Amino acid sequence: MDLSVMVSLIALGGLVVGDVDLGHRISLSPKEGELFAFILTRNGHRVKKARIFSDFWPDRTDGDARQVLNTCICEIRKKLSRFEEKVKIGSLDVTRDEVTFVGEAWVDSVTFSAAVTSFLSKANASVFDELGDLELSRAYDVLSSYKGSFLEGYDTGWISPERTRLEELYLQGNRMCTRLFAKLARIEPAIESARKILEVDQFHEGAHCDLIRLLALNGQRAAALRQYNYYSDILHDELGIEPLKEAAILREKIVTGRLFADFDTELRKVGEALCPSNAVAEA
Fold first, then answer.
1. Is the pTM here over 0.90, yes or no?
2. Are 8 and 95 part of one and the same domain?
3. Dist CA 54 CA 73 (whole Å)
4. Adjacent-strand bridge partners of 3
5. Spatial separation of the C-alpha atoms in residues 233 and 54, rounded to whole Å
6. How far apart are the C-alpha atoms of 171 and 182, rounded to whole Å?
7. How many domains does the chain have?
8. 6, 72, 111, 240: which one has the fewest Cβ atoms less than 10 Å from its Cβ?
């Protein structure tokens, strides 16, 4: 009896193709792997050949592109079929105009995108108190599955917009987690969420201010001031600009101790939007 298994495609932080159930890895060439990823990340695992030609081989004639595509498809089919003696892993169905993967597939970037989008939609549409601690912890775990840029190491044109979209989801998701953890007075995971943002975007001023405030409120006053100095230095050295006046006010509150006068009020400021200019006045 055939044993059907699900193909897995790890696209965050690189590219690994295998099967979910048995742990086998399928060794595709870089171009074969990229093509397979392109198909599996499309809606319904179906894509027009014309789209493949334009995204993969824009400088070739349709005839040349078709020949290269056919070679890639043949190799992918051959490598997938090596598992057919023991399991049924799916294959590529090809018509004159389309290529479709027929079978079950799990793609980490697709799962990540759906989960974070759902979390942000719920968080933005509801009173924060309606989001349970369990759901917030699940979102934190999903965001932790982001191991790097989409198809890191690949640079074909179609990849960049998807890479940017997923990175932005990652940043938005962690900013929301920072805010919600702070609201629940769970400062340690809030700090970790802010740090995750800065690992990807070192110029994210909102995350810097969140981290500075959270460190101070967590009793790490010296670490908070070091973080402010680091934030100030990279803005000056890399961009030639000064920190937001709001950030300078935050630093002054830490130095003078005024930040700790109303702990709950300061926690509620975590995750708030910052004024993009340096003309922020202290409330």
1. no
2. yes
3. 17
4. 87
5. 44
6. 17
7. 3
8. 240
